[in-house]
Amino acid sequence: MKIVSWNVNSVRARINNIIDYIKQAKPDILLVQEIKTQDENFPYEDFKKIGYESHVYGQKSYNGVAIISKIEVKNINKNFINDDLKQSRIITGEIIIKGKKTNLINIYVPNGNPVETEKYDYKKNWLKKFISNIRKELTKNSNLIIAGDFNIIPEEIDVYDFKRYEKDALGKLEIRKKFQELINLGFKDVYRLINKKKQEYTFWDYFAGSWQKNYGMRIDHFLLSNNLLNNIVSIKINKNPRSKTKPSDHTPIELEIN
């Protein structure tokens, strides 16, 4: 099974790129973030034509997440946390992996910048609630996949110039500690598990030639609960979509699991 996570930065602006990617990569499940559209304006038909069903938690102009799948995803839930600002940032569903009922959690964590504003407090509170609810979820089902745009740089190796980001909402120590707190509940960061020292990125800003200079950061992640680790086949950051015309500023991360 191939599960992909991708912050598409507007599903409608990026629809041709997304369809081309699906035809080439053939994911079983595509988890998308920052769709930037309300449910009723989501391009369901474009995905249906190529055999995918869409489960959408949208919002006008900002945020929004969706599960686009050619396999059955049950028990879709859009209320995983009580979001202080009522933003559309999490959608969950259940799939079966080798007979194991597995909870798939697609997230778009708040950015949190600038750090001296209420946006940073919102991010901290959001993560606190999320971690608390993951802890509860593990008591019901210990097979969890958390994927999406975490807006967190886990380690210094995960950004081209850490000094520039150590006081940023993506790289501040207290935010990185939240990521570690989540992992300590019984997860592994799959990319870093497989690639101990490799320096690859999932995001390059549109400004100042960041893509061309490879000024990027790894902020999109797959976390798997420990009892699913033996099911991992591979994980790959596919940089190709970032090089296309009118790209998202993020690129897909692809998990193969059996």
In the sheet with the most strands, the strands line up as 3-4-2-1-14-13
CATH architecture: 4-Layer Sandwich
CATH superfamily, called what?
Answer: Endonuclease/exonuclease/phosphatase
Count every helix, treating DSSP H or I runs of 4 or more residues as helices.
6
CATH topology: Deoxyribonuclease I, Chain A
Give the overall average pLDDT.
97
Textual characterization of the structure:
The protein contains 6 helices and 14 strands. The chain has 258 residues and is of the alpha+beta class. The protein starts with a strand and ends with a strand. The protein has a single domain, classed as Endonuclease/exonuclease/phosphatase (Deoxyribonuclease I, Chain A, 4-Layer Sandwich), CATH 3.60.10.10. Helix content is 23%, strand content 28%.
Task: Break the fold down into its secondary structure elements and pairings.
Blueprint: E1 2-7, H1 15-25, E2 29-33, H2 44-48, E3 53-57, E4 65-69, E5 74-77, E6 90-97, E7 100-108, H3 118-140, E8 144-149, H4 173-184, E9 187-189, H5 190-194, E10 203-204, H6 210-213, E11 216-217, E12 220-225, E13 232-237, E14 253-257
Helix pairs in contact: 3-4
